[in-house]
Write a structure and sequence with these properties.
The complex is a heterodimer of chains A (111) and B (286). Chain A contains 3 helices and no strands. Chain A has 111 residues and is an all-alpha fold. Chain A is elongated. Chain B has a two-stranded antiparallel ribbon with strand order 1-2. The chains are: A mainly alpha (111), B mainly alpha (286). Chains A and B meet through helix 1, helix 2 and helix 3 of A and helix 3, helix 4, helix 5, helix 10 and helix 11 of B.
């Protein structure tokens, strides 16, 4: 039998449902930081466009952005763990490969 | 226009809201509208535009994460496998982005916009064929158990499908990844036809699986832009927020309007943007 069994699929779908929920809430959470950073920055500086250097509001923006970048990566990491739990080591390895490629990119970009 | 002023943020946010709505109504990420808008309207250098757009691609992708899963349409194993291709492509794209002249990027963008318009036009006319195609078994699909099924209420019950030509699919995903990180788009416009024609997936599965993958490709590219300092928070934040909210509004509107009319409108928008990007490229601008 070459197709994934029904039990396989259902289990994977359930866990994916949880992951999808995490992504959505994570995105909202990150958006919250962005709103905070934008609102705080605008209120503090008023209408003038002078650049006062890195403020706490800029850091809020950075947190929000970093969270957004991290979320899909986290999803792949979680999937890797789930595949491993289900003893599907091939796909755990494939997920790991994706993570390594992403990490290699970050490192290469920072050089 | 100073990129620090509140006016700038507000206008960028509003533009992104509009782009997000367009994207939400079409079921695509807004990047394809955002990058041209940022570069042509706001004069943002393309590397920062791409950086900001990639963040919004992630935001919209995460924000709409649940729907396809609920429909049991996404082929998760296939998605993860294909993500190897897209992330490698994203890596390549970021390396290339330093070497490719801006006008060439504009030309590429123009081509992608044309491809999107073409696809939208075809979908308008053909609709979902739902035909059964004879697909020979694929070694990789068998070994990795990629073949699956999906529920189709129209045709009744679960429809099983096979995955064809996995290696070709991986190659195409690689190019989709390159495009994604070069141009700051989600590349659904490349992924869906690739899955449709190369992998012979049912169109609903292609769309769902593509949406599933877009966030990861975006994150791979965005992360690299970020560590290189090409993501400016003052631009990326309003873009992400605007498009996120816009995508949500867009899906609400989608429920109330006809697909036909929306598609027709957007073909016009895409063609207009394609023309503008093309002209800018020719004039050596950007």
């Amino acid at each position: 039998m070459n197709t994934t069994s029904d039990a396989d699929r259902d289990r994977l779908l359930r866990t994916e449902g949880i992951l999808a929920g995490l992504l959505r809430h994570g995105a909202l959470f990150a958006a919250g930081w962005l709103v905070l950073g934008m609102a705080g920055g605008l209120l503090e500086r008023g209408v003038s466009s002078s650049d006062a250097g890195a403020t706490v509001w800029d850091r809020c923006l950075t947190i929000g952005i970093a969270l957004l970048i991290a979320l899909p990566v986290l999803r792949v990491a979680l999937m890797m763990v789930i595949f491993a739990f289900e003893r599907d080591f091939r796909f755990a390895a494939i997920s790991a490969a994706v993570l390594i490629i992403i990490a290699a990119g970050f490192v290469a970009g920072a050089l | 226009m100073s990129s620090d002023g509140p006016t700038f943020s507000l206008l960028v946010g509003l533009m992104s809201l509009g782009a997000g709505m367009l994207g939400g109504m079409l079921g695509m990420a807004a990047g394809i509208f955002i990058v041209p808008a940022l570069t042509l309207l706001f004069g943002v250098p393309i590397r920062y535009a791409v950086g900001a757009s990639l963040i919004s691609v992630i935001a919209c992708s995460c924000g709409s994460a649940a729907s396809a899963m609920e429909n049991h349409l996404t082929n998760v194993r296939l998605a993860i496998l294909l993500e190897v291709g897209t992330t490698l492509g994203a890596l390549t794209g970021v390396v290339l982005s330093g070497m490719i002249p801006t006008s060439v990027l504009y030309l590429l963008f123009s081509a992608i916009l044309l491809a999107s318009a073409h696809q939208m036009h075809r979908r308008r006319r053909e609709g979902d064929r739902g035909e059964r195609r004879e697909i020979p078994p694929d070694r990789w699909a068998d070994a990795l158990r990629l073949d699956s099924s999906y529920p189709d209420p129209l045709l009744g019950g679960e429809i099983a499908y096979r995955v064809a030509r996995v290696r070709l699919g991986l190659l195409l995903m690689y190019f989709a990844g390159v495009a994604s990180s070069l141009l700051g788009i989600g590349s659904g416009v490349l992924k869906v036809p690739a899955m449709d024609s190369a992998l012979r997936l049912p169109i609903k599965v292609s769309s769902a699986t593509s949406n599933f993958m877009i966030g990861v490709t975006g994150a791979a590219s965005a992360g690299i832009y970020y560590v290189r300092g090409d993501v400016l928070p003052k631009i990326a934040a309003p873009v992400a927020l605007g498009s996120l909210f816009g995508a949500y509004l867009g899906t609400l509107i989608l429920m109330r309007t006809s697909n036909e009319r929306i598609r027709g409108l957007f073909i016009v928008v895409l063609l207009g943007l394609a023309a503008k990007m093309f002209l800018t490229a020719i004039q050596g601008g950007g």
